[in-house]
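[stage:ingest] chain + small molecule (nicotinamide-adenine-dinucleotide)
[stage:ingest] validated
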Amino acid sequence: MFKAQSVAITGAQGGIGRALAEMFISNGANVSISDLSDPKDVGEKIGAVSFKCDVSNENDIKNFILGSENINGPIDIFVSNAGVGYGDPKHAADASNEYWELSWKINVMSSVYASRCLIPGMRKRGSGRFVITASAAGLLSQIGSSSYTATKHAAVGFAESLAIRHWDEGIKTHCICPQYVKTNMTKGMRMAEGHQDGLLEPEDVAEALKNSISEDKFMVLSHPVVGDYFKNKANNYEAYIRGMNKLKQKLGSNQLPD
Ligand SMILES: NC(=O)c1ccc[n+]([C@@H]2O[C@H](COP(=O)([O-])OP(=O)(O)OC[C@H]3O[C@@H](n4cnc5c(N)ncnc54)[C@H](O)[C@@H]3O)[C@@H](O)[C@H]2O)c1
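[stage:predict] done
[stage:export] tokens:
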């Protein structure tokens, strides 16, 4: 197993973030968690320190990092996990500018802010890890949410840039790309419940991350089938677009996220 002394995780009041926190704690790490409001109760329950941090705000991210480092020491692993998704009820460009801007800030810029703050220290120490919870939608597509799809593609792109620029300096990046996971985000989503590839538990994602860290692997595929879909997309983009359009027709508008 990997050795991590100090871990900080955003968007960790529940769902995937909390499961990741519990996985790190059970592997001996000192963990800080944060969310839009301070997840104090969760922190006390699982044994993590907790902070309030709105990840769309660069100062909040800095304060979360400084606060964590004051208590747990230099961050070994930063997990950029907070995320949002908004549907397009009428057509692909239907979500409001406000939702697009929020998606951009929360799903992409939050990781830029955290890395900007942490890279100089990690470089000096010659070690560190970034984990970005992107999505299978960042490799494929979330039918019915173009803002989610576009910003999760950007999240994967930023994770690739981090890995390519800094891997040789000892700074590793891991990009988590799950399909549907049973959390608040998928509650009541008909597309997710009963999905052919399964609705995972957040703990399954944590286990996949643990294995990828142990093996120093960039891509974390809690649903391995996503790797096959991605290969098929690269092999035949035209068939991918037609197939996804057929899937959209099959789903019908009443199953798309709104
Ligand atoms: N559940 C899934 O099926 C699934 C699949 C792929 C990827 N993901 C990604 O996993 C991550 C975690 O989501 P989840 O499924 O656990 O759902 P979740 O709703 O339980 O967790 C998302 C968390 O992000 C927090 N958050 C939202 N805006 C924030 C902000 N501005 N600042 C700080 N925190 C904020 C929310 O309060 C929430 O606690 C997200 O990035 C999501 O896009 C989820």
